[in-house]
Design a protein that fits this description.
With about 575 residues, this protein is an alpha/beta fold. Helix content is about 40%, strand content about 20%. The strands form 5 sheets. Strands 1, 2, 6, 7, 8, 9 and 16 form a 7-stranded mixed β-sheet that branches. A hairpin with a 2-residue loop joins strand 7 and strand 8. Helix 5 crosses helix 15 and helix 9 packs across helix 10. The chain is globular. The protein starts with 5 loop residues before the first strand and ends with a helix. About 55% of the residues are buried. Bound molecules: flavin-adenine dinucleotide. The site of flavin-adenine dinucleotide has 43 residues, from helix 1, strand 2, helix 4, strand 7 and helix 5.
Length: about 575
């Protein structure tokens, strides 16, 4: 094997170099493990770099009453209590320490007058809780983690896409990928693997997500036999750009509303008064997205089919200081000066709450030796994520995954790589070059996006989702006939053909889960079942591989301990 393929061996293989992957790698290194980090994009360019508004942590620097209990309660209520309560507890308890640590490693946060980390308001958070660096928090986070990790000495394999996880009996043994530049295959042999590959937003056409978001990690884990959970919960962020068409979907950070931005319809009405008079613009994302959607559908939308978001009542210098990226984004992309007038915004596919099923304490998946953290993992956010809770998720559970992966690596022997699995992965990956005149991967991607947007979008019905599943079946069949031209040297058509496998697999899991959940909860809105169901509130949807078929079952959620129930019930 080693003479046929370039092979690297390490204790812990981290797939993904965003916040979760880097934090996992740092922790595993700190435990004395040898660590390799693989990334589809260049180091420093992972999706996390785009995060804007901030990191949620109950540090109580601005609102001194804040504490982990309130953060826990907000997270559970935001997630419509479907969250893994133990993850929500650990997250709320550990986030402040993880932010302080980031600061010690060199992150330069905005400051309060007395020199503490400044915190801003965000939807669904009772107190001002988001630690931020203007609206470029993700950039600072990635820069800090990357400096720390490189300094500590992890090996980086960038512009390398993993196409299959390799197993040794019942455990994970490594992965096979290809260098995007040359198209050559490479094997990673490792005792533990951490998946930190982010989400699946590219299965929808209007999205804030980057090209990396094709659901690879979830699909890789599923293929290797791990379980996925709650994939029906896909978050549509209420405020993406709607005009001009070329920039549709690009995020307009929630920090605009956090800093006092007001939403109005074309008649000038502040419509959130109707939908959530208490929290108004700072309601949770699911509620605001549905409100904008409803205003547009009922004929009160703006010229380009959105709502107006206005921050121009604040002093221009303040807006430029607190929202510099938004100021430049609108000036350069839409020729709008947001210090003088409103922005046009509408819902955009943003985040997936579901993903790889993990244990709260260790972030281990249901496959021994395989761990997952960040957006690729499920549980923390339940049916809807609060803004700012992802960056803190990456730090808290990235660290826990790295710790447990290093421990696991110490306890097990070196795995054996199975030549038959490697050959099968190579054959499948190269198949599009063997076919002539087959299906075009770009056409399949376009049709997949149309299907997901129109049939598995913000509002869903049984009929639509059933149609989507039929369409997905046809798309899978077409995908098995894809062909690409040219060589393996940086060939975007070939890359897309491979990414499509992940997008189709995870889209099917989303649709199957959305079909059976006959209720509306958080980001999952069923027009035919508009209410919360007490019974579904006790269930998680579990997706698993059953031969060539995708299995789905419901597991009853474990009972919450009395002390957490009490915190959740407090009327605050
Ligand atoms: C515009 C925008 C603004 C946001 N703002 C905020 C915010 O202010 N606060 C907040 O909490 N959240 C925010 N979010 C959400 C948050 O940024 C993401 O959920 C989070 O960064 C995901 O981090 P991650 O580490 O899980 O994955 P990522 O940062 O996406 O990293 C994934 C990594 O996996 C790699 N990868 C993927 N597939 C493969 C493969 N097959 N082989 C090898 N490598 C692979 C990628 O190259 C990348 O390195 C925002 C999201 C967007 C889009």
């Amino acid at each position: 094997m080693s003479d046929k393929f370039e092979t690297h061996e390490m204790d812990v293989l981290v797939i993904g170099a965003g916040g979760a992957g880097l934090r996992a790698a740092i922790e595993a290194l700190g435990q004395g493990a040898s660590v390799g980090v693989v990334s589809k994009s260049l180091l420093g360019k992972a999706h996390t770099v785009m995060a804007e508004g901030g990191i949620a942590a109950a540090m109580a620097n601005v609102d001194t009453k804040d504490d982990w209990r309130t953060h826990f309660r907000d997270t559970m209520r935001g997630g419509k209590t479907l969250n893994n309560w133990r993850m929500a507890q650990l997250h709320a308890q550990e986030a402040p320490e993880r932010v302080r640590e980031l600061e010690q490693w060199g992150a330069l946060f905005d400051r309060t007058e007395d020199g503490n980390i400044l915190q801003r308001a965000f939807g669904g958070h009772t107190f001002k809780r988001l630690c931020h660096v203007g609206d470029r928090t993700g950039l600072e986070m990635i820069r800090t983690l990357q400096d720390r990790g490189v300094h500590m000495g992890f090996d980086v394999y960038m512009e390398c896409t993993i196409v299959r996880l390799l197993t040794d009996g019942e455990r994970c043994a490594g992965a096979i990928g290809y260098w995007r530049e040359q198209g050559r295959f490479v094997i990673f042999k490792a005792k533990s693997e951490v998946i930190a590959t982010g989400g699946i937003g590219k299965a929808w056409p209007i999205t804030s997500n980057s090209w990396e978001y094709t659901g690879d990690g979830m699909s890789l884990a599923y293929g290797a036999g791990a379980e996925l959970m709650d994939l029906e919960f896909v978050q549509f962020h209420p405020t993406g750009m709607v005009w001009p068409p070329g920039v549709q979907g690009i995020l307009v950070t929630e920090a605009v509303r956090g800093e006092g931005g007001i939403l109005r319809n074309k008649k000038g009405e502040r419509f959130m008064e109707k939908y959530d008079p208490k929290r108004m613009e700072l309601s949770t994302r699911d509620v605001v997205a549905r409100s904008i959607y409803t205003e547009v559908k009922e004929g009160r939308g703006t010229e380009h089919g959105g709502a107006y978001l206005d921050i121009s009542h604040k002093p221009a210098e303040y807006v430029k200081k607190k929202l510099p990226s938004m100021y430049h984004q609108f000036k350069e992309l839409a020729d709008v000066d947001i210090t003088k007038g409103p922005m046009e915004v509408g819902p955009t596919c943003h985040y997936v709450m579901g993903g790889i099923r993990v244990e709260a304490e260790t972030a281990q998946s249901t496959l021994p030796g395989l761990f997952a953290a960040g957006e690729a993992a499920a549980g923390l956010h339940g049916a809807n994520r609060l803004g700012g809770n992802s960056l803190s998720d990456l730090l808290v559970f990235g660290r826990r995954a790295g710790l447990a992966a290093a421990k696991h690596a110490k306890e097990v022997s070196t795995p054996t790589i199975d030549a038959a699995q490697v050959d099968a992965a190579e054959r499948e990956a190269l198949a599009p070059f063997q076919r002539q005149g087959g299906e075009n991967p770009y056409a399949i991607h376009r049709d997949l996006q149309t299907t997901m947007q129109s049939l598995v979008g913000i509002f869903r019905t049984r009929e639509d989702v059933q149609k989507a599943l039929v369409e997905l079946g046809k798309l899978k069949e077409r995908w098995s006939h894809t062909s690409v031209e040219g060589s393996r040297m940086f060939n975007p058509g070939w890359h897309l053909a491979l990414d499509l496998k992940s997008m189709l697999t995870i889209s099917e899991a989303v649709a199957k889960s959305a079909l059976v959940r006959e209720e509306s909860r958080g980001a999952h809105s069923r027009i035919d079942f508009p209410e919360l169901s007490a019974e579904w509130g006790t269930k998680n949807n579990i997706v698993f591989r059953s031969g060539a078929e995708m299995g789905l079952r419901q597991d009853t959620r474990p009972e919450m301990p009395a002390e957490l129930k009490q915190i959740l019930a407090e009327d605050k």
